[in-house]
Amino acid sequence: MTASAQYPSLADRSVFITGGASGIGATLVKRFVAQGARVGFVDLDEAAGKALAARLAPDARHAPLFQRTDVTDIAALRAAIDQARAANGPITVLLNNAANDTRHRIEDTTPESWDAGVAVNLKHQFFAAQAVAPDMRAAGGGSIVNFGSVSWKLKQGGMPVYTTSKSAVQGLTRSLARDLGPAKIRVNTLVPGWVMTERQVRLWVTEASREEIARGQCINELLMPDDIASMALFLAADDSAMCTAQDFIVDGGWV
Ligand SMILES: NC(=O)c1ccc[n+]([C@@H]2O[C@H](COP(=O)([O-])OP(=O)(O)OC[C@H]3O[C@@H](n4cnc5c(N)ncnc54)[C@H](O)[C@@H]3O)[C@@H](O)[C@H]2O)c1
């Protein structure tokens, strides 16, 4: 990728990222650290999170803080946010990125597996927003970016708890944007298309996928984590000061 934008408003800003150890989240961590932001991130994958933090620290204006946290454990998530605040200062950017797109059949879904799916794909987004909102109010504003997905818009089957949760993320965004708007807290949904992360390539991308992408996307190029991170930077920066309650779709023109 050619040199990308540097946002003066992101320098030294306290940013909290969920699911930051791999995939799009790891690129978010890298790109926000490169902006000079103070980044706190959480993930289940301790080895990958520690390795990423160690890799980025030497060249960072602020070394990122990694904490091994399960976002479905709301008490643990709150504690991690408290730790990040203590280390980096009041959090004024929240990237609600963690999710799990495990496939499951309608017939095999139980009340327990349904609740677990909602917990990892939706519930933590609300409670993380709730936890950082007082920081943002006190700071005179902030930006919350909730990660959605094009999958439910494309009527993709095979993972109804994920697709249902991701559709609800867009409703969550619009609800929070109204309540938090008077405090100049902006809330938007970043909606990725089919992004070529390690997990996607390992599990789901086949020979036939290239043709599907060519048919679906208007731009016949592979969508990469950096394409999503570039939009996240813009939504976090003051450059998007009047953008709130919106869905920002980065999918090469598929939906
Ligand atoms: N990759 C895509 O094609 C695509 C498409 C549409 C939407 N998205 C969305 O973008 C975001 C990132 O997706 P990705 O493809 O990078 O996902 P990924 O599965 O590659 O990475 C998700 C990260 O979240 C972490 N995580 C999972 N469960 C967790 C938990 N309970 N607690 C803490 N961390 C947890 C994982 O360990 C992993 O590091 C997600 O919200 C996803 O729904 C991705």
Description:
- It contains eight helices and seven strands.
- It is an alpha/beta fold and 255 residues long.
- A seven-stranded parallel sheet has the order 3-2-1-4-5-6-7, sandwiched between helices.
- Helix 4 (111-139) runs parallel beside helix 5.
- Helices cover 45% and strands 15% of the residues.
- The protein binds nicotinamide-adenine-dinucleotide.
Rg for CA atoms: 17 Å
Task: List the secondary-structure elements in sequence, H or E.
Answer: EHEHEHEHEHEHHHE
CATH C-level category: Alpha Beta
SS-based class? alpha/beta
Distance between the termini: 25 Å
Number of strands: 7
CATH topology: Rossmann fold
* Approximate strand percentage: 5-15%
Could you list the spans in which at least 5 consecutive residues all have pLDDT below 50? none
**CATH architecture level-2 label:** 3-Layer(aba) Sandwich
Bound small molecules, deduplicated = nicotinamide-adenine-dinucleotide
Q: Name the helicity range.
A: 40-55%
Mean model confidence by pLDDT: 97
Q: CATH superfamily membership, which one? A: NAD(P)-binding Rossmann-like Domain
Largest sheet: 7 strands, parallel
Q: Characterize the overall form.
A: globular
| Overall structural domain count | 1
Counting H and I runs of at least 4 residues, what is the number of helices?
A: 8
Spatial sequence of strands, sheet with the most strands:
3-2-1-4-5-6-7
